[in-house]
Amino acid sequence: MSIAKSSGLGLLVMASLAFAASAGAEDAKPAPAAPPAASPASPAASSAPTPAAATPAAAGTAWSAEVSSGNQGITLDEAQLKVVKSVSDYFNGVNTLKGSFVQTTSDQKKMKGKFSMLRPGKFRFDYALPSKQIIISNGQELAIQDLDLRNEDRVQLDQTPFRLLLRKDVDLARDAKIMEVQQAEDLMVVALQDKSPDTPGRIKVYLSTKPSVELKEWVTTDAQGVETRVEIADIKRDEKLDPAAFEIKGVNNNPLQMPH
């Protein structure tokens, strides 16, 4: 498989969706400014936790946290196992998910668009203009397409950390190395790494707990420590989605479904 360097994906880390998208952002044209009411960035920013919120507070506060200092994961106590199980239960209970997203790379470049997910294993990210990128998983392969430059790169979904969250039977305590667990009154944070050496990188998921458990954002970290944050908003669960939208077509035959 060749990486299309001319598309800006030469720095692509094929082990992760967000790694691929952040590399694409290097060459993406800046998105035009939009009124706050029309931009998905506003609800995402207001409803999703920030990096500062994810930092454990001093002893005696509402935070309960443990972070691994290496690559072996932490030993979970009963309370931490309950948090990890709650995250697994959430993903097991989601059939479909769709909404808007704002992606922020390590150099603070932002891209936005709409996403949809159909378990097990299928998802689609359509980036807003001026970008002409689509990222699609059909349950087996993940494709990163640049419709402007007419090129595409593919990787097996099992080579990305997302397989742990989107498989038919999600059990993070069984299948992942848990690197961090945090809990507050209205937030759960779990950082995980695939046990397979063929799947590098880490992913940290943030879920709100009030009024109900809901995914709010995730942060991926590649082997070089580069982070990409994806905040989601306008979330709708378990609506009927067209399975054809998750078919990977050639870049010349795949219409860009831009967010409105």
List the helices and strands and how they pair.
Elements: H1 17-25, H2 41-47, E1 64-67, H3 78-93, E2 96-104, E3 110-118, E4 122-127, E5 133-138, E6 141-146, E7 151-156, H4 163-166, H5 172-175, E8 176-184, E9 187-194, E10 202-208, E11 214-221, E12 227-237
Antiparallel strand pairs: 1-8, 2-3, 2-12, 3-4, 4-5, 5-6, 6-7, 8-9, 9-10, 10-11, 11-12
Q: Compute the number of helices.
A: 5
Class, according to the CATH hierarchy?
Answer: Mainly Beta
Tell me about the largest β-sheet.
12 strands, antiparallel
Order of helices and strands: HHEHEEEEEEHHEEEEE
What is the CATH H-level superfamily? Lipoprotein localisation LolA/LolB/LppX
The CATH architecture classification is Clam
If strands are numbered along the chain, what order do they take across the biggest sheet? 1-8-9-10-11-12-2-3-4-5-6-7
- Inertia-based shape: globular
Poorly predicted ranges: 1-64
Quickly count the domains.
1
Q: How much of the residues is beta strand, in percent? A: 25-35%
Judged by helices, strands and strand pairing, the structural class is: alpha+beta
Task: Output the radius of gyration.
Answer: 18 Å
Mean pLDDT: 76
Number of strands: 12
Short recap of the structure:
This protein has helices at 17-25, 41-47, 78-93, 163-166, 172-175; strands at residues 64-67, 96-104, 110-118, 122-127, 133-138, 141-146, 151-156, 176-184, 187-194, 202-208, 214-221, 227-237.
